[in-house]
Specification:
The complex is a heterodimer. The longest helix of chain A is centred in the N-terminal third of the chain and has 40 residues. Helix content of chain A is 49%, strand content 19%. The two termini of chain A are 29 Å apart. Chain A has eleven helices and 13 strands. In chain A, 39% of the residues are buried. In chain A, the strands form three sheets. Chain A has a six-stranded mixed β-barrel. Chain A is elongated and about 100 Å long. Chain A is an alpha+beta fold. By secondary structure, chain B is α/β, with parallel strands linked by helices. Chain B is 34% helix and 29% strand. Chain B is built from seven helices and ten strands. In chain B, strands 6-7-8-3-9-10 form a six-stranded mixed β-sheet. In chain B, strand 4 and strand 5 form a beta hairpin. The radius of gyration of chain B is 18 Å and the shape is globular. The mean pLDDT of chain B is 90. Classes of the chains: A alpha+beta, B alpha/beta. Chains A and B meet through helix 1, helix 8 and helix 11 of A and helix 2 and helix 3 of B. Chain A: One of its GO terms (biological process) is lipoprotein localization to outer membrane.
Chain lengths: 392, 240
């Protein structure tokens, strides 16, 4: 306790030198928390959007379905087993049929995924109601995402040609109208995807009653996956996304390291300077009855307390700043789409107690270690040499 | 002379320092004894071994050979922690350059040894103010060393050395950086504390102003005792 009190006095007594170090360290502190909160917010926002728009309460996949291999699609469909069909009948699940196809627009052919969806579904956050048609209507209604529309040069009400192969491998084509261009943050329902009524797609492909995957309503209890089908929880479905976010956050760790390194350099420099400028003081402390161990403790604590002060100072200006960014969010440029996952127009940071406490503890530990390292020289210091201002 | 009991004794003390391939012999078999309440000085030219002897007595250094016993503890046998404990509880130091801790106020400087002793807050504050009153600086308690004159700084250093009421105070050239008037005031203060509290004072000096106040003068030349003179009789402390 005595050493802590003395360290505090020395630290405050050092005046501007202390406050400059504290300012640098507190900046690192706030920026690290902010960046981590930013990533955490992005992670949550993306997950929430994907669950709301695509995964809901999980998905049953046909056993041959592999979303990363379009060549599997020709075989990845089947009739719904009774257990799943019962979920669909009860309104707790919706089948989706995925078929490879292509669209012809603007003088070029583009490969797309034709996704059949029940226009009246309310399980995922897709405006499928735009696909509702009068019975017997000939026109094939299509729903596409804004990215898809942009890349294909399409607008609402454009007429395009859709080509596909039916269950027997026969090519067929039909004119279709883009009834709605939807704006979504979830790229996997947008880029390269064309949505049309499930019944029409089933009829077009001669796959009556069949589906590639079945999406379960959030909160609905999944049935045991029947033979030929596998159930994927939202957690499973988001694992790739998590891996991607983790990989991207690995890159931002370099920023933390640079920031921490700069702050620690300031602390280390102060400690080294102290050791050379305050040798006489160390000698005096020993003459007054401090052991070398306590002198080391004192100097280490002085350095370590920079971290405590930085946390306090950081809290003064950091909390309002972080609260503001969490509340108002940060506008995301369009180019952020290249991140590879769904990011909204505004990104809201998320700060958890674990994040703030973890960062605080990390900075305090690193500061204390950096403060301790130079002071090890004191262990070899003779009091008589120190009093003369010399190192042994 | 009244025998008040030996507090410091050295026996054939030798101290050698390595100097490249050679060695410098700073003390060559010094045998001395100081009794409780003495006001004595080690006198001699630079390099005569005064500070070395003072450092060994103060358990800041250990002898190469021989023995130094301070308040019953053999300095050469003490661990670092035991030596620190001896200095903390029983020995006060006064340095030529005052060695006040620059970021502390006068009060905090004087308080420092008591904090190490773990003295309770109220007792500590009382003792610090009492020590500052001894040296006439109670009104400068909140001043930092940079705001004090040289004489005031050394008086704070005396208060720091005396605040724990140690048995022994070791003063290394305490007036070397002071003018005549301040030197006189400092010495007068230390004499008074010596008489009032019975503290043993041992000086290292070659300042004539200090020598005039000493009651015992030990002349060191080239690491050996050249003379050991009683200049004034010790006061009889057995009388009230």
């Amino acid at each position: 306790m005595t050493v802590l009190r003395l360290a505090w006095r020395n630290l405050i007594g050092a005046g501007i030198r202390t406050w400059l170090n504290v300012l640098v360290l507190s900046l690192s502190f706030v920026v690290i928390v902010w960046m981590q909160g930013f990533l955490e917010g992005m992670n949550r926002q993306v997950q929430d959007a994907m669950i709301a728009t695509e995964y809901a309460g999980g998905q049953y996949w046909h056993e041959k379905y592999d979303p990363y291999d379009p060549f599997t699609l020709s075989d990845a469909h089947g009739e719904l087993p009774p257990a799943i069909a019962e979920l669909v009948r009860a309104g707790n699940a919706m089948p989706v049929l995925v078929v490879q196809g292509s669209i012809y627009s603007g003088g070029s052919m583009r490969p797309v995924m034709l996704r059949g969806i029940d226009p009246r579904q309310d399980i995922v956050n897709l405006p499928s109601a735009f696909l509702v048609q009068d019975s017997g209507a000939e026109e094939l209604p299509l729903l596409i995402g804004s990215r898809m529309a942009k890349s294909a040069g399409l607008r609402q009400d454009d007429i395009i040609t859709v080509q596909w192969r039916d269950a027997h491998g026969t090519f067929d084509a039909r004119e279709a109208r883009v009834v709605k261009v939807i704006s979504t943050t979830v790229q996997s329902v947008d880029i390269g995807q064309v949505w049309l009524p499930l019944d029409r797609l089933r009829a077009m492909t001669d796959m009556a009653g069949q589906a590639t995957l079945v999406t379960l309503r959030r909160g609905a209890r999944p049935a045991v996956a029947p033979a030929g089908w596998t159930f994927h929880t939202p957690n499973d479905l988001l694992s790739d996304l998590r891996a991607m976010v983790k990989a991207k956050s690995g890159g931002t760790s370099i920023f933390y390291l640079i920031l921490l390194f700069l702050a620690m350099l300031a602390i280390f420099d102060t400690q080294i300077l102290s050791l050379f400028r305050r040798r006489k003081e160390m000698g005096t402390l020993m003459a007054l009855g401090m052991t070398r161990g306590r002198v080391i403790e004192l100097f280490t604590l002085e350095g370590g307390l920079h971290g405590v002060l930085a946390a306090l100072v950081g809290a003064v200006y950091g909390i309002p700043f972080l609260a503001y960014t969490a509340r108002t969010g940060i506008g995301m440029p369009k180019m952020m789409d290249s991140m590879g996952f769904a990011i909204g127009e505004r990104l809201y940071s998320t700060y958890t107690p674990g994040l703030v406490l973890g960062t605080t503890v990390l900075v305090l530990i690193v500061t204390t270690i950096v403060s301790f390292l130079p002071t090890r020289r004191i262990a070899k210091l003779k009091p008589t040499d120190a009093l003369r201002g010399r190192w042994t | 002379m009244v025998n008040n009991g030996v507090v410091i004794a050295t026996d054939k003390l030798v101290k050698k320092y390595p100097m490249g391939r050679n060695e410098l012999v700073a003390l060559k078999g010094v045998s001395l004894a100081f009794e409780r309440g003495e006001f004595a000085g080690l006198v001699g030219p630079s390099g005569s071994g005064k500070t070395t002897l003072l450092n060994i007595i103060g358990s800041l250094d250990a002898p190469t050979a021989g023995s130094a016993t301070v308040l019953g503890s053999q300095v050469e046998c003490l661990s670092h922690a035991q030596a620190a404990e001896l200095r903390n509880r029983h020995i006060g130091f006064i340095f030529q350059t005052f060695n006040l801790l620059p970021v502390y106020t006068a009060f905090e400087n004087v308080e420092f040894p008591l904090l190490l002793l773990g003295m309770a807050g109220a007792d500590r504050r009382k003792a610090v103010m009492e020590a500052l009153e001894w040296v006439g600086l109670a009104d400068r308690a909140r001043s930092k060393p940079a705001q004090l004159s040289g004489g005031e700084g050394q008086r704070v250093a005396i208060a720091r050395a005396m605040v724990k009421k140690p048995e022994v105070v070791l003063a290394d050239e305490p007036t070397a950086n002071l003018d005549a008037e301040n030197s006189h005031n400092i010495l007068h203060t230390m004499e008074k504390l010596n008489l009032d509290l019975g503290t043993t004072f041992v000086f290292s000096t070659h300042d004539q102003k200090v020598i005039e106040h000493l009651r015992r003068k030990i002349v060191l030349v080239d690491g050996k005792i050249a003379a050991d003179e009683r200049l004034q009789p010790e006061p009889d402390r057995s009388k009230p």
